[in-house]
Amino acid sequence: MSAAGTAVRAVEAVPAAALVTGGLIGGYATARATGNRPLGGAVLAAAGAAAAHQWWRRGGPATSAALGGLYVLGFGLSHPLAKRIGAWPSVLAVTAANAAANAVLVDRARR
Question: Whole-model pTM?
């Protein structure tokens, strides 16, 4: 098996809820720890791409569109929400919503 095939199989073994959690929390934590927002965005994008692979394979185009929109919306809404409840609580709130939606819509289907 090629290295690319091995990488794809490895990603497919990870629940989509874990991927979006890693992307949202990891992206924020990376940006905060390094002071480099584009680096945090790269973490967010990489995890989102891996999750999108899961969404497409397990849920199809409609699920992919819905979960992709929720992921981007969560990232976008975390900024104004942070002004009201704080940065980490905001990131955790949007992450919880994304992880729950992924668990129900795609991860449960893989069992």
Answer: 0.89
